[in-house]
Design a protein that fits this description.
Blueprint (H helix, E strand, L loop, with lengths): L1 E2 L10 H9 L12 H14 L5 E5 L2 H10 L6 E6 L3 H4 L4 H4 L4 E4 L8 H9 L8 E8 L10 H14 L2 E5 L3 H5 L8 H7 L2 E5 L9 E5 L2 H4 L2 H7 L8 H10 L4 H22 L12 E2 L2 E3 H7 L3 E2 L1 E5 L4 E7 L6 H19 L1
Parallel strand pairs: 1-11, 3-4, 3-5, 5-6, 6-7
Antiparallel strand pairs: 2-8, 7-8, 9-13, 10-13, 12-13
Helix pairs in contact: 1-12, 2-12, 6-7, 14-15
Length: about 350
C-alpha cells in the first residue's frame, strides 16, 4: 500500500538524518537553549530579514496552535477562523479544551474573509458573549488553497481596525510559498501577522515547528506557556538540528517544491481521464471528485483520504504528495489508475 494520505509518512530528509547522526553523541543544553536551536533561530531571522523576532521550537502543529492561541488570549476571549480551519475540524477540540471558544465562518475556498471577521466584531459582540480577539488563518489552507498578499493584507487591516491578533498556522507554509500564483514571502508574513509558525513536520523534518513571534506583547512569558503545556522538549536540539539543515542552504524550499511538483503531476494524471476537481489548488494537496466504484478500487492499493460526499455516487478525495514523493511512485500510480479506469468503465 503506497500512501497519498499525508505529507509526514516518511521520516526526514537525508541531510537532517545525517546531521542527527553526526551530532548524536554531542552533549548539549536542554529545553531549546542549545547552540543548534540558537543557530537555527538566527538562520530563520536571516531568511526573513529582520532581527526583532522571537523563535521557539515546538514538537508539532497542534501544540503550536494551542500555544499560539492560549498565550495570547484572556479566558473570555475567542478566536475567529474559517469553518474548515484546522483548529475547528482536526484538533479534537484542543482549543475549546483550554477554555477558548472558536468562532467559525464559512469562508471562501478555505479562507476567512475580512467581511466575516467584521461581522463577528460589529454585529455579534456584547458583554454576554465571548470577546473575539484573534483571527486564525492557515497558509496553505486545509483545501490546499493559498492566500495572496492582498488577501492577507486586507485581513491584517481588519484585525488592526478591531484590535485583533492575527495568527497564521504554517504547517504547510513551505508548500504555499513555492506554489504557482503565490506572491508572498516569509518577510511579508512576518510583517502582516503577530505570530506564525514554520512547519517542519510536513516538510522534511523528523518533527518540529518553528514559532515566530513579531508582536512584542506576545513575546512575554511565552516559554512559561511552552513549559506548562508540555511542549518544551528536554532534547530540543533535535529540532534545532533539523531547522539548521532546513534553512542552511535553501533545503526547506527545495523540499516544498518537490511536494508541489509531484502533486501537480498527479493532477495531470486525473485530468487525462477527465476527472474533475473540488477546487483548484497549486500546492501539494489535490481534491479529485471520484466515482465511488473507482475510489474503492484505488483504496485496494493506495491509502488516500476521504474528504466528503459529493453526490450519491461520487466522493471528494484528498491526495497529498510530500517532500519525499518520487516520480516512480507516480508512474506506478498512472499504470494502476489506467487499468482501474478501464475496469470501472466495463
Amino acid at each position: 500500500m503506497y500512501s497519498f494520505a499525508n505529507d509526514y509518512s516518511e521520516g526526514c530528509a537525508a541531510p537532517i538524518l545525517e546531521a542527527l547522526v553526526k551530532h548524536n553523541y554531542e552533549q548539549s543544553v536542554g529545553y531549546g537553549l542549545d547552540d543548534h536551536c540558537k543557530n537555527a533561530a538566527a538562520l530563520i531571522r536571516k531568511e526573513i530579514g529582520r532581527d526583532d523576532l522571537d523563535v521557539h521550537f515546538i514538537p508539532g502543529g497542534t501544540p503550536a496552535n494551542i500555544l499560539g492561541i492560549v498565550s495570547a488570549l484572556k479566558p473570555y476571549e475567542a478566536v475567529i477562523c474559517a469553518d474548515s480551519g484546522h483548529i475547528n475540524v482536526h484538533e479534537t477540540g484542543s482549543i475549546e479544551a483550554t477554555g477558548h471558544k472558536i468562532l467559525s465562518a464559512p469562508g471562501v475556498n478555505g479562507k476567512i474573509t475580512p467581511a466575516e471577521i467584521e461581522d463577528f466584531c460589529v454585529n455579534r459582540m456584547e458583554e454576554h458573549t465571548v470577546y473575539p480577539k484573534m483571527v486564525f488563518v492557515s497558509d496553505a489552507t486545509e483545501y490546499g488553497t493559498i492566500y495572496t498578499k492582498k488577501e492577507l493584507s486586507d485581513i491584517a487591516a481588519m484585525c488592526k481596525k478591531h484590535g485583533l491578533y492575527l495568527y497564521l498556522d504554517g504547517a504547510r507554509i513551505g508548500s504555499a510559498l513555492v506554489a504557482k500564483g503565490n506572491d508572498m514571502t516569509l518577510a511579508d508574513i512576518a510583517e502582516l501577522t503577530d505570530m506564525f509558525y514554520i512547519g517542519g513536520t510536513k516538510n522534511g523534518a523528523l518533527l518540529g515547528e518553528a514559532m515566530v513571534i513579531r508582536n512584542e506583547e506576545l513575546k512575554k512569558g511565552f516559554r512559561y506557556h511552552l513549559k506548562q503545556r508540555g511542549a518544551m522538549l528536554a532534547k530540543g536540539a533535535v529540532m534545532g538540528i533539523a531547522f539548521e539543515e532546513l534553512f542552511k542552504d535553501g533545503l526547506y524550499f527545495r523540499l516544498a517544491k518537490n511536494a508541489n511538483l509531484m502533486a501537480m503531476s498527479l493532477k495531470e494524471i486525473f485530468k487525462r481521464y477527465d476527472i474533475p476537481f473540488f477546487m483548484e489548488t497549486t500546492t501539494n494537496q489535490i481534491f479529485p471528485i471520484l466515482p465511488d466504484t473507482l475510489l474503492k478500487k484505488i483504496e485496494e492499493k493506495y491509502t488516500v483520504t476521504f474528504w466528503e460526499k459529493y453526490d450519491e455516487t461520487h466522493s471528494v478525495v484528498r491526495f497529498v504528495c510530500s517532500w519525499a514523493t518520487q516520480k516512480e511512485a507516480l508512474i506506478d500510480f498512472y499504470k494502476d489508475f489506467s487499468q482501474m479506469v478501464k475496469e470501472n468503465d466495463r
